[in-house]
Write a structure and sequence with these properties.
Chain lengths: ~170, ~160
């Protein structure tokens, strides 16, 4: 009597093992790629946070410098507003308007700036300045904005913005 | 018999490579957790220290940090792993007030995960205005929901 028996050969088990190995490899590669992408994203966020707080720290140091200038200006004789304007615009770092609003920028990264606006108080006030704004703005142009740009009269800056080669600052509010 | 040995060696090699792949993925995942959590932790401490009406030194003492070798130290855990937070710096007197200048670092073993500067300027006699100014700063950090309510809490 012939009995037909089914025997699984070594070839079948090898193919099964190859299939298992392929599945595990695919899963391993996918999990590694996912973990690597998540880490890259976290590192980018960390860099952004570090840049923001470095800029914020620099802004605080600049505020202390402005305050020192304001203290010295209060001791000056003559027109206070004119003296403030003259002292603050001397080194080209600050943009001062007629109503004594002082604006300065600190670079966060190549596309973002930290914009700080303070209002200078009259000498009769105990306060020397009031912080009006401390916000992140995005420069449409990746290039760093020249310092002198902010010291130009408004009309000239608007004229410059019409030219596409000049940087355009978008204020996010 | 030789074929069987070759097959077994091939599968052993494959499995060891696959295992290394999973281990590498796990290490990346741990790095990711450390990076993310340390960043949030550092931001939280920085914002609370900046918004505090206390001097930065007093803030760390009140928060239970230990003073060791000229710096404030606190041990913490991230996902069951011990990390060390350190803060060092000083308060400088300027013409118009005080400038707090500190560095906050989160370390895992010998590795620095993140370092953030805690710098705040306190003009003389302008503490109320300083606290008011914090509400302006809130607008920049609205992507940090964890520190948001604490900011508002302190500002109020």
């Amino acid at each position: 009597m012939n009995k037909s028996e089914y025997r699984m050969g070594i070839g079948t088990s090898s193919i099964l093992m190859i299939f298992v190995v392929l599945c595990l490899t695919t899963l391993g590669v996918l999990s590694f790629a996912s973990a690597r992408n998540n880490l890259t994203l976290s590192q980018k966020r960390q860099t952004q946070v570090e840049s923001y707080y470095a800029a914020s720290a620099e802004a605080e140091r600049i505020l202390s410098q402005i305050d020192t200038i304001l203290i010295e200006t209060r001791k000056d004789t003559g027109n206070f507003a004119q003296n403030v304007y003259a002292r603050l615009t001397k080194d080209g770092r600050f943009w001062v308007t007629e109503d004594l609003c002082v604006t300065f920028y600190v670079e966060i990264n190549n596309v973002q700036l930290l914009q700080v606006i303070v209002s200078v108080e009259e000498p009769i006030s105990a306060k020397r300045y009031t912080l009006l704004e401390h916000s992140v703005i995005i420069s449409a142009d990746a290039e760093w904005v020249p310092t002198d740009y902010y010291n130009l009269p408004v009309e000239e800056r608007e004229h410059m913005q019409e030219d596409e080669s000049e940087p355009i600052i978008l204020l996010l509010d | 018999m030789i074929e069987l040995v070759i097959v077994l060696l091939f599968f052993s090699l494959s499995m060891s490579i696959i295992l290394q792949l999973f281990v590498a993925a796990y290490e990346k995942k741990i790095d990711n957790i450390l990076c993310n959590t340390a960043t949030i932790m550092a931001e939280d401490i920085l914002e609370r220290a900046s918004a505090s009406t206390l001097a930065i030194d007093d803030f760390f003492i009140e928060e239970g940090w230990m003073y060791e070798e000229g710096r404030y130290v606190q041990d913490a855990e991230i996902d069951g792993r011990a990390v060390r937070l350190t803060a060092s710096g000083a308060r400088e007197a300027t013409t118009g007030g005080m400038l707090d200048n500190y560095l906050l670092t989160v370390q895992y073993g010998d590795r620095e995960i993140i370092t953030l500067p805690i710098v705040r300027y306190l003009p003389d006699g302008m503490l109320d205005d300083f606290l008011l100014s914090l509400t302006y700063r809130d607008r920049d950090i609205n992507y940090l929901p964890i520190v948001w309510y604490r900011f508002v809490e302190v500002a109020q």
